[in-house]
C-alpha cells in the first residue's frame, strides 16, 4: 500500500486539553443535575409528574440528534461544529441557571441536549483525525476514555458540593467557564485537516427518520418506567421506534449520501464496540442511580459525602484507562482488553449485590467500586479508539456520533429497565415481609435495598453479556508499526482491518 504523507499538527497535545475539557463538561452534565434536582424542584415548584422531564428533555434531544450532529461535523468541519456546540451549550446552561419556572428550565435542558449533540461527536472525531500515530493515538484516547468513563461520577461530587454549599443553579452556571476556556483554546490551537471534510449533501429523510426513531425509543423507555411496560403508550412508542428505525436502514441503503453510511456499522469491530458499550452503560447508569439513593437515603450520607464515596471508582477508571488500556492497546488485541475489562467490572458489580442496611463502605462498597472502575476504564479506552478505527476521514464524525448514541440510548434504557426491576422487587418484598417487620421504616428501607440488589444482579448479567459480545465480535489485532488502515468505503472487506491503527 503506498505510503501517504500526513501532516502532524505540532499543537495536537494542546488541542487535546481543550477537547478533553469540552468532553468533561458534557459528561458531567449527565449526572451533575441529578444531585441538584430535589433542590431545583422545591425552588421552582416543579410537580412530581414533571420532575423526570428535567432529565428526559436532555436525553431526548441529545440521544435523538447525535447522528445528525455527527454528520453536521463531517459537513461543516469538526472545529467549527465544536465551537458552535460549546457556545450553544454555554448559552443554554446560562438560561437553565437563571430559570424562573418549570418551562424555562425544561427548555434550557432540551437546548443543552441539542448543542451537546453537536459537541460530543465533533470532539471525538477531532481526536480521530488529529492523532494518527498508533502510540500517540493510544495516549490521547486513554485520556478521553478516562474522562468519558469517570466524568459521570465526578459530576455527582461536583453536584453535591455546589448544591450543598452554594445553590442548585450553579450546577448549570459551572458549564460557562468550562465552555469559554474550551472555545478560546479551540480557536487558538485546533487545526483540522481540510481533506477530512465531507462535501456531500445532507440526507434530510435520514435525519427525520433517525431523530424521530431514536426519540421514540428513548421516550418509550421513559414511559415504561412511569406507566409500565404493558401500557398502550409504551407499546405504541416501541412499535413506532421499530418502524421508523427500520425505514431509516432501508433509506440509508439507497440514498447517495446517507446520514449513517451502513459501512460504518456493518464492520464487525465497530458493531461489536457499539453494542458492548451500550450494554456496559446500561449497567453503569443504573448503578449510579441506585448507589446514590442507597448512600443518601439508607446510609444517611450528605450529597457531598455521597459524591466523594464515588471517587475510588473514578480513580479506578483513570488507572484502568491510562495505565492499563493505553499501555497495552498497542501490544494486544482490543478484545483481550475489552472482554476481561467488562468481566472485572462485573465482579465489582457482583460485590455490590451484597449491600444491606448496615454494609461497611471500606469492606464491601470500596472494593466493588475499585474493581468496577478499573474494569470499565480498561475496556472503555480501546473501545473509544476502535469505534473510529478504519473509517474514512469523511465518516469520522458520524462514527464518533455512534459511540455517543450507543451510550445515550444505553443510559436511557438502563435507567428505565433497572428502575422498573428495582421498583417491582421492592414492592414484592414489602408485601411478602409486611407481617414480620419490626417497623414500617425498617421494612421500607429493607425493601428498597432488596430492590436495588435485584436490579444490580441484572446489571452483572448485562456486563457479562457485554464481555461476550466484545470477545466474539471484536477481532481487530494489535497494531503493527507502520501498518495500513483499511478504509470504511465501499469495497472495504469486513475483515480488511487486520491492525488497530491508533
TrEMBL record:
PROSITE patterns: MFS, SUGAR_TRANSPORT_1. The chain crosses the membrane at residues 15-37, 52-70, 82-104, 110-129, 141-162, 168-190, 202-222, 228-251, 272-295, 307-324, 336-355, 361-384, 455-474. InterPro entries: EmrB-like, MFS, MFS_dom, MFS_trans_sf, Sugar_transporter_CS. It is a multi-pass membrane protein. Residues 15-478 form the Major facilitator superfamily (MFS) profile domain. Keywords: Antibiotic resistance, Cell membrane, Membrane, Transmembrane, Transmembrane helix, Transport. It holds the Pfam family MFS_1. Its main location: membrane. It is found in: Cell membrane. PANTHER family: BLR6921 PROTEIN (PTHR42718:SF46), MAJOR FACILITATOR SUPERFAMILY MULTIDRUG TRANSPORTER MFSC (PTHR42718). This is MFS transporter. It comes from Streptomyces javensis.
Amino acid at each position: 500500500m503506498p505510503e501517504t504523507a500526513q501532516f502532524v499538527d505540532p499543537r495536537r497535545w494542546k488541542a487535546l486539553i481543550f477537547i478533553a475539557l469540552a468532553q468533561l463538561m458534557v459528561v458531567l452534565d449527565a449526572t451533575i443535575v441529578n444531585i441538584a434536582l430535589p433542590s431545583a424542584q422545591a425552588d421552582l415548584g416543579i410537580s412530581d409528574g414533571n420532575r423526570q422531564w428535567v432529565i428526559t428533555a436532555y436525553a431526548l434531544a441529545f440521544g435523538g440528534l447525535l447522528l445528525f450532529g455527527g454528520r453536521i461535523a463531517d459537513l461543516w468541519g469538526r472545529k467549527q461544529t465544536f465551537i458552535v456546540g460549546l457556545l450553544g451549550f454555554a448559552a443554554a446552561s446560562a438560561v437553565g441557571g437563571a430559570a424562573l419556572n418549570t418551562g424555562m428550565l425544561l427548555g434550557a435542558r432540551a437546548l443543552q441536549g441539542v448543542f451537546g449533540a453537536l459537541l460530543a461527536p465533533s470532539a471525538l472525531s477531532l481526536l480521530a483525525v488529529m492523532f494518527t500515530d498508533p502510540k500517540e493515538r493510544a495516549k490521547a484516547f486513554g485520556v478521553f476514555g478516562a474522562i468519558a468513563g469517570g466524568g459521570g461520577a465526578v459530576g455527582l461530587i461536583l453536584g453535591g458540593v455546589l448544591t450543598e454549599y452554594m445553590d442548585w443553579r450553579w450546577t448549570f452556571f459551572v458549564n460557562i467557564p468550562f465552555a469559554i476556556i474550551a472555545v478560546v483554546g479551540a480557536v487558538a490551537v485546533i487545526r483540522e485537516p481540510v481533506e477530512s471534510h465531507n462535501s456531500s449533501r445532507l440526507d434530510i429523510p435520514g435525519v427525520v427518520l433517525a431523530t424521530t426513531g431514536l426519540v421514540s425509543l428513548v421516550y418509550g423507555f421513559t414511559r415504561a418506567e412511569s406507566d409500565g411496560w404493558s401500557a398502550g403508550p409504551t407499546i405504541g412508542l416501541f412499535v413506532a421506534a421499530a418502524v421508523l428505525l427500520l425505514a431509516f436502514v432501508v433509506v440509508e441503503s439507497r440514498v447517495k449520501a446517507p446520514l449513517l453510511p451502513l459501512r460504518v456499522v456493518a464492520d464487525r469491530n465497530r458493531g461489536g464496540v457499539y453494542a458492548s458499550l451500550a450494554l456496559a452503560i446500561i449497567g453503569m447508569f443504573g448503578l449510579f442511580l441506585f448507589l446514590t439513593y442507597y448512600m443518601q437515603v439508607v446510609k444517611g450520607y450528605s450529597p457531598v459525602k455521597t459524591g466523594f464515596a464515588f471517587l475510588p471508582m473514578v480513580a479506578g477508571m483513570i488507572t484502568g484507562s491510562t495505565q492499563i488500556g493505553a499501555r497495552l492497546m498497542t501490544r494486544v488485541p482490543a478484545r483481550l482488553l475489552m472482554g476481561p475489562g467488562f468481566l472485572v467490572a462485573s465482579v465489582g458489580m457482583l460485590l455490590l449485590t451484597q449491600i444491606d442496611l448496615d454494609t461497611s463502605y471500606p469492606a464491601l462498597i470500596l472494593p466493588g467500586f475499585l474493581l468496577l472502575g478499573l474494569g470499565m476504564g480498561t475496556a472503555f479506552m480501546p473501545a473509544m479508539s476502535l469505534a473510529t478505527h478504519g473509517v474514512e476521514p469523511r465518516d469520522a464524525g458520524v462514527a464518533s456520533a455512534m459511540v455517543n448514541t450507543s451510550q445515550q440510548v444505553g443510559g436511557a434504557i438502563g435507567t428505565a429497565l433497572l428502575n422498573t426491576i428495582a421498583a417491582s422487587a421492592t414492592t414484592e418484598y414489602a408485601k411478602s415481609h409486611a407481617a414480620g417487620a419490626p417497623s414500617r421504616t425498617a421494612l421500607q428501607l429493607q425493601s428498597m435495598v432488596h430492590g436495588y440488589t435485584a436490579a444490580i444482579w441484572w446489571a452483572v448479567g448485562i456486563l457479562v453479556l457485554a464481555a461476550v459480545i466484545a470477545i466474539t465480535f471484536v477481532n481487530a489485532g494489535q497494531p503493527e508499526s507502520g501498518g495500513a488502515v483499511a478504509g470504511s468505503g465501499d469495497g472495504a472487506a469486513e475483515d480488511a482491518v487486520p491492525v488497530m491503527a491508533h
